[in-house]
Structure formats: structure tokens, C-alpha cells
Amino acid sequence: MQIVIGLENLKKISRASSSRIVFLVIDGVGGLPHPKTGMTELEAARKPNLDRIAQESITGLINPVSMGITPGSPAGHLGLFGYDPVKFNMGRGVIEAVGIGLELGSTDIAARGNFCTVDNQGVITDRRAGRISTEKNAELCRMLGNITIPGIQIRVTPVREHRFVLTLQGDGLSPEVTDSDPQEVGKTPLTVKCWSSQAQKTVDIVNEFIIQAGKRLQHEVPANMFLLRGFSRLPHMPSLHEIYKLTPAAIAVYPMYRGLARLAGMEILPAGNDISSEMQSLVQHYANYDFFFVHFKTTDSRGEDGNFTAKVQAIEELDNALPALLKLDPEVLVVTGDHSTPAVLAMHSWHPVPFMLRSKWCFPDQVSDFSERACLRGGLGQFPAVEIIPLAMANAQKLNKFGA
Hints:
By secondary structure, the chain is of the alpha/beta class. Helix content is 32%, strand content 19%.
């Protein structure tokens, strides 16, 4: 993926203004047709507010990373925020850690963990252990947090439901290690290995931790094992304020997305536990910022569960909460997703994601509903996600002329 303008040039032509930009990110919104109805989740949902926005927008499809590439959530969001997701690729662990407010040293290593269920042969039967409660998660983290390995400080911190963060502090650690998560049921957890010879010490520590922790969890139901991925340390990246002169804020329920936003220099606002609370927070803080990232997670979760009907219901839940946003009437409104999560696949996919941008200065096309097939006919065609922020900035009149 070739980025023509680049962050340095955008930094030179960006300017502050009073106009506001709202990015509504519907996680995993893209889908595929259900085999019985031939409709995607978006096509099956009753969503008058999203369709109304489409009728007033210019639309298209975005590629979060590159054509044919299935993105993880961090890569998908980095593209939406204008960062090349290949250049600024980062592990899930550090994002999750920052999202829950953990203080990390520059050499600390963090990994994202999932409590999971394995059978008597050690084969994974549920990668999320039935999405156990956060309270049960905290109990299990306390059980694992007192594991000792000489020379290493270990923290096991609960996040939400089945997710936790493992952090390691000590000399000679490296994030260049593989995941233990095969990201599929029907397989056994993987042995962690090196990406480089410098990581052998870290590999030995992580595998020793897995062995000790597995013994402690073996009689727990349903979370009798765990999976690790995204070993990483704090990255170096310019903030949205530094590049775009924005005063940005994020409203997201799940910690990982707050972590991504914080790494991009956004202020983290209260989000509550549902989309209605998120919209209330947007209204409450609307006067204080000029860029808002509002994240809705449930569509992705239901898609990963393979529950087509529940994903349709999640889209309708979001749509019902939109009048509060529409009443604010931001100068620029962007609605899209970070990737597709078709329920028929029950996982992230490489399919392009529907996109729409509404502003006083956009050129509305003839698309009348927000869906994959409709946006395929949109005026923007298919384009890289990293081009969204410059497009939004232009429509908000926050970019000066480029060149003489």
C-alpha cells in the first residue's frame, strides 16, 4: 500500500479550526450473505438512522490494511486513525495494558491473554471460556499472579470478561516471540518460540509460566487454560494533535480500544457499558474537543460468535442510539468499521468494509442504505483506510493547500 502524501506533509498543511469530526467505528461491521436469505447482517437489519446518514453521504469501501489481508483490531484501527498499519504495527499486549492504565517501562513486555477451555487431551474447545465474568477473571488472575520465576517480576491483570494482560519486567527481555494462541478451536495451544535468537530468555520464561499456570488452572471450569498473543512493548508514534492539530477524545467501552486511542494521543472519556451511555458522554463533552472516536464493539463479538441474528440485533441497537449523535450535527461524520467479521465465518476477514462520510462539503452519491453491496456502488469506490483522516480533515476545512 503506497501512501502518497505521508504524515510529515499532512503535519505541514494541517490547521486548527472550530469544526468537529466524529468517527463512529462499528467494530467488525462488514459481513457476508447468509446462505438462507442471501442478505448480509447490514442488509437484514432495520437501521433507519444509518440509512438516513447514507443518503446524505458519499460512500465507498475501505481496505483496512491491504487487499486480501485480514487485519487484527489494532491494525484496523491504526489505519482509521491515519497511521500506516504496516509501519506502526504493534502487539495486542501493550495496547491492552495501556488501555487499562498499567504503567509500563520502556523495556517491559506485555501480552494479551484469553482464558479458554480445553478438553482432556488439551484441545481447545472454546477460545473465550464462554466469555466468563470479569469477576471470575479477577479470581483466576489472582491465582496466577503469585507465580514466581527468578529474576522476573510478573503481573497478571484482569481486563474484561475472559481477557487479561500478562506483563514481564526484568533484564534481557524481548518481544520477538510467537503466540501460544492458534486462534482456532480444535487445536492445542502452541509452544511459544523465538522470532530471533535474542528472545530465547523470554521464550523460556513464558513457557515456564504457561506450565506453572496450566497446573493451577487444570481443575477450573470452564476456564482451565489460557492463550497468549501480541507480545510487545511501548511503541513510538506521533500523536493526532502533533500531526493534525486536533484536540481528540475517545469514547470506548473496551480497554484495548482505549489503549489504542491513548497511544494516538486521545483523551479518554467516560463510556459506561453500552452505546447509549457512550452517546451521553459524547453529548456531555462535545464542546471540549474537535475530534471524537466513538467505538461500538458488540457487532464484532456477535460476528466472532457466529451468531448472525445477534449481530443484526447489535446493528439495530446501535441505530436506535443514533438520534443523540444526529442531533449534534457534527460538521463531519464518518461511519465505518475497523474490519469485517462475517457471522458466517465467525472470525475477522479480508473483505472490504462499508464506509460513509457526511459533511456540508461532501458530494453525496446515490447510495440510499448503509450496506456492503450499496457502498460498493459508492462515489469513493474502494480505497485504503489511511486516507480517511485526510478526507475528513478536508471536509472539516482543517487542511491548507498543498504545494505552491
